[in-house]
Amino acid sequence: MSGQGEGGQVLVVAEKPSVGRDIARVLGATSRGDGCLQGNGYTVTWAVGHLVTLKEPDEIDSRYKKWSYDTLPILPEDIPLKVIRQSAAQYRIVSRLMNSADTARIICATDAGREGELIFRYIYTQCGCTKPFDRLWISSMTDEAISEGFRSLRSGADYDGLYHSARCRSEADWLVGMNASRAFTLRYGALLSVGRVQTPTLAILVRRRREIENFKPENYATLTADFGDYRGIWFSEKLDPDTHLKDKETAQAIAQQVKGKTGTVTKVETQRRRDLPPQLYDLTSLQRDANRLLGFTASRTLKVAQSLYEKRKALTYPRTDSRYLPPDMIPRVVQTMKLLPGEYQPYLGGALPEGKLRVTRRTVDAGKVTDHHAIIPTAKRVDPSSFDADERQLYDLVARRLLAAFYPPCEYDATRVVTAVGEHTFRSTGRTVIQNGWRDVPPLKNPPKTSRKKEEEDEAPLPDLHEGDTRTVRSAQVKEDKTKPPAPMTDASLLLAMENAGRESDDEEIARQMKGNGIGTPATRAAIIERLLQVGYAERHGKTLTATDKGVRLIDVVPEQLSSAETTGRWELALDRITDGSQDAARFMDSIRKFAAYLVENAKNSAPQVTFPAEERRKGKRSGASSAGKEVEGCLCPVCGEGRVMENTRSFYCSRYREGCAFTLWKDGLTRGGGPALTEKLVRLLLEKKQVRGSTGTLTLGESALAFIPAGQDTPSAQRPLTWQKTGEKQPAGGKKTRKKTES
User: Cα(253)–Cα(261) distance, rounded to whole angstroms?
Assistant: First the structure.
């Protein structure tokens, strides 16, 4: 495969170095260059994730450096781009190659999705390139898939809709995040991160926390009768739930009435039922099962799936929202199954009877395949023993799901028997399996045994009973219990809630439109959850996720339109329509600007009845490092003058933070700007002299750190407390708190 075009080289731009190296190997570009690989008429280079991003407000206009209502809302018609400083060297390489006279043709080979498209287009725009380009769109990183992708290149213009959607998403997050975060931070005197997507996700966690806190348990009892060869539970169709008796005494009284009495079978109903095989995985369903069965967080699942896709070439593209395959994939699926490792070969017969794939519309449907098909193993022979433990477990999950999805349904006879003992009725259920079908493929190599015994008891077949048969009640067992609150959220249940958000709308048309357009996308939901943990709005305890007090209070103060899943679902639907060209991008952005302005006005006019304790702003430890502080001897707090300066693993702060003193100096607050990490010695000098000069620059303790202005006034607690000016530079680099954050 030669890439020599008319008059020069073909430049291929990948998203990551590892992907670039794989593509270069397939293309025969094996000679190392500066940030690239060359050969056979191709030059392959790469980004390192995003190289270009939207500018911060104070980079657009210096008056935005100070957080003030006077400068809100911030609504630029066009948000300019900037090169990310940490990856500027690689940007320069890519830019030089794009604009080189030797480059005749460009191929975009970033990840085949909305974010991958944005990464390439931002670079292309920032470096002023006007050369036409083609798009590589692949769902697998095997050599065969890469080669086929290069034989099937499409014009980059075919993906303009995807780019417009991606840019709208990026700018919408910027406009809502920048304006709302500043407005609510100013109003409540606490650094509050507010976002278009993270806030409605937080609202789901807050709602569940309140449901649990407001739940009032009620006592109830159940009564089970033993008829010898089967058992039945007391029920009454007048109750809901129909098996719950109001108390233990009532249940015991009924037990005494039926013991030793004769029961008569009054009803026997048997129905043939079919449990359809599970569908193939998209990313969200894979994350949910990995959380439920393996204990993986959503972000851990995505990371492992990405490794299996890029590094191991063992799975197809993971960031997909489709659970279907196109018809032309059928021969490849057959080949994939035959190449699965030996431990899966015993299961092939059910999925490939007589060597032919069992195809249904639940697995193969061209109309339901989006940008990418479902996640399946690749048609490549792999050795799972060479994978790490997480990769082995996740690959096992996907391989078993591929097989089970093509098995026949599980068929069984479900029997329901009603036995009357005097005026009381008892219900018995059982099933007789006719065909085990897909249940012959367990979801895991070693499925947990915890609930299996209970399932087997519930599914045990009943004896051959007919109406009029009689049995003596040998014994009656009373069980006392309490109603249980809703279960705390887990990654699995939160992902499901995000996926289905908005479908409960009272407006049937909206509910219909929301189908498939919940909060975020499969590719971003894990990052949203991690963001909530990072900013201290949620906490993880084992498998469960819980909203913190800070998170609850934020939902109390933001308008419902911002925390509503319905609003976010509408936006996601609009972004999808921009992708397919059925909605105008400019119209969407106009609505976002109006909404951002509304949020500022709402924050400005709201009564600050909710307070955010200072200590909550220092929560959110993610690494497990201790937050317990030690005193910096002899140093009084420069803000309140009463507390002592304390040091922990992340910052220097006031011992009176619980009383509201907000003095904080983050240890790594200046490192991104090339400044030093703060040490006890540096802080001592700063508190004494207010300015420290060194051979590489000057460190200054700003006035905002020494005169903290209380909540509700125009200067926020997040104002810059420290500056670092390199020798010879005009503009100082800000401290950690100057990095205003929007959603990614």
Answer: 14
Task: Return d(Cα 86, Cα 50) in angstroms, integer.
Answer: 10
- What is the domain extent for residue 225? 219-275+414-430+441-482
pLDDT of residue 711: 30
> At residue 678, does pLDDT exceed 90?
no
SS3 427: strand
Residues 465 and 523 in one domain: no
How far apart, in Å, are the Cα atoms of 734 and each of 172, 281, 651, 702? 25, 45, 16, 10
**What is the pLDDT averaged over residues 422-437?**
96
Are residues 264 and 236 part of one domain? yes
**pLDDT score, position 710:** 31
Among 188, 37, 173, which residue's Cα sits nearest to residue 609?
188
Q: Where are the alpha helices (DSSP H) in 311-424?
A: 330-338, 348-351, 389-405
Which sign, positive or negative, has the C-alpha torsion 612, 615, 618, 619? negative
* Predicted confidence (pLDDT) per residue in 219-244, tens digit: 999 999 999 999 999 999 898 899 99
Which of 188, 281, 317, 407 does the annotation list as catalytic? 317
616 has pLDDT over 60: no
| Domain-located, residue 547 | yes
Largest CA distance in the chain: 99
Asked if 234 and 305 sit in the same domain, the reply is no
pLDDT surpasses 80 at 605: yes
- What are the residues whose beta carbons fall under 8 Å from the beta carbon of 434, sequence distance 6 or more? 272, 411, 412, 413
Q: Write down the pTM of the prediction.
A: 0.78
| Residue 190: exposure state from Cβ atoms within 10 A (0-12, 13-18, ≥19) | buried
Hey, CA dihedral for 665, 669, 671, 673, is it positive or negative?
negative
Cα 237 to Cα 160: distance, rounded to the nearest angstrom: 59
**Residue 571 lies inside a defined structural domain of this protein:** yes
Q: Do 116 and 100 fall within a single domain? A: yes
458: left (phi over 0), alpha (psi -120 to 50) or beta: alpha
Do 475 and 541 share a domain, yes or no? no
317 is a catalytic site residue:
yes
pLDDT band of 486, cuts 50, 70, 90: very high
- Taking a C-beta distance cutoff of 8 angstroms, is the pair 608, 188 a contact? yes
Q: Is residue 228 part of a domain?
A: yes
Contacts of residue 369, defined as CB under 8 A and 6 or more positions apart, other chains included, come to 322, 324, 325, 326
Which residues sit opposite 225 in a β-bridge?
Answer: 232, 476
Taking only the tens place, the pLDDT of each residue in 280-311 is: 999 999 999 999 999 999 999 999 999 999 99
Instruction: For residue 637, give both structure tokens.
Output: 């707090």
pLDDT in tens, 94-146: 999 999 999 999 999 999 889 999 999 999 999 999 999 999 999 888 899 99
Domains in the chain: how many in total? 5
Which comes out higher in pLDDT, residue 567 or 625?
567
**Bridge partners (DSSP) listed for residue 427:** 233, 418
Helices 565-579 & 198-213, crossing angle to 10 degrees? 150
Alpha-carbon torsion (271, 277, 282, 287), positive or negative: positive
H or E stretch including 39?
Answer: strand 36-39
Q: Give yes or no: residues 596 and 634 share one domain.
A: no
Residue 630 in domain: yes
* pLDDT band of 633, cuts 50, 70, 90: confident
The answer on 572 and 454 residing in a single domain is no
What the block records as the tokens of 496 is: 């499901």
Asked if residue 40 and residue 112 are part of one domain, the reply reads yes
